Every structure is written in structure tokens, then in C-alpha cells.
Amino acid sequence: MTSKFFAYLERLRWIKRWGLKRNVVEENVMEHSWQVATIAHVLGLISNRKFNGDVDPNVLAVAALYHDVSEIITGDMPSPIKYHSEAIKHAYHAIEREAEKEVLSTLPDELQNPFEPLLLHDKFDAAAVKFVKAADLISAYLKCQMEVAAGNKEFDDAKADVEARIRALQMPEVEYFMATFVDSYLLTLDELLKHHDPVRG
């Protein structure tokens, strides 16, 4: 049997995010998934090293890599539309679940079982859901922060909304990440290198 699974995954690069807004810098689902994976991974490390957590950062990273795979079929549904009403939310979730099953079915039979907890939301690991959701929100915040810093007022309200949702998580790992890493995302390459020099010296 030949499989279309990885051919499907490759198409994540063509799925644009934030489609209802004017973007200074466009973002696709493939690069978003990589960013969410790196953030979820470090949130797990922070949890274990700073807050006596007991999570596997590698499991979080892999779960994050695949968390938006259904968008290969559905495209990216902007949050204001997805959560506009209960009817739309339930309808979208039903479509999302069918898309997840469709993508899973493209794998050879012997690989479908190990991929189920990565591709099917109702089989996700509970700890992974919590950390991937947090990482997803942080990624959205970083995008909003970049757009606002570039003078794009389209993202002013979105930035405030995402920040409020992040704070509402009340996860110390997230607060640590926000305090430690977020400000440096706005530095230029020259500024990053200049800040790095004293550490090396």
C-alpha cells in the first residue's frame, strides 16, 4: 500500500493562519506547528525543573507537532468565527473530527494505532492537551505581538484577548515562559547578537 499521509502533511505549508486579518508577516500552519512544539517542549521542562512537575517534554513536543493536522482538510478557521456561536462551534468540531479520521486513514494499517493519540482529539493525552493549548496560545500571542510592534492595529484586540486567555490558564510554567522569553522575540538579529556577546565573554 502506498500512503498519502506525509504528502498531506507537506500541504500544511500552504494553509495560512489569521485569514480574516491583514498580516504584515504571513504565517502558515506548518511553521506554527513547529513553534508550538518547541514551546510545549520547554513548558514541560520548566514544569519538571521549576515546579515539581512530572510530564514528558518529548510527548508534549510530538503532540504539538500534529495538533493542527486536521487543517489540511478544513483550513484554518479563525477563532472569532469558530466560537461565534454554540451551533458554529459544534458544527466545526464535528467537521474537525471527521477530518482527523480522514487523515488517520491515509496511514498504513499497522501505523494507525500509534498515531491515534496524536491525530484524534478525543484520544489526546490529558496532560498533553493542557500544555499544547498553552503553547498554542503563546504562539498566537507572539504573532499578535509582532504584528502590533510592526504598527498593524488589526491585531490590537487579538493581542489583548489572547493575553487574557493566557493569564486565565494560571499555569506557573506559562508565567515563567512569558516573563523569561517573550520580550526578546522583538529584538533584531543585531540586538540578539549584541545581547549574546557578554554571556560568551
From TrEMBL:
Keyword RNA-binding: no
Protein keywords: Hydrolase
Domain of life assignment: Bacteria
Keyword Disulfide bond: no
InterPro entries: HD/PDEase_dom (IPR003607), YfbR/HDDC2 (IPR039356)
Membrane-crossing segments per the record: none
Domain HD/PDEase: 25-150
SUPFAM superfamilies (alphabetical): HD-domain/PDEase-like (SSF109604)
An MF annotation (GO) of this entry: 5'-deoxynucleotidase activity
GO cellular component: cytoplasm
PANTHER family named in the record: 5'-DEOXYNUCLEOTIDASE HDDC2
UniProt-recorded name of the protein: Predicted Hydrolase of HD superfamily
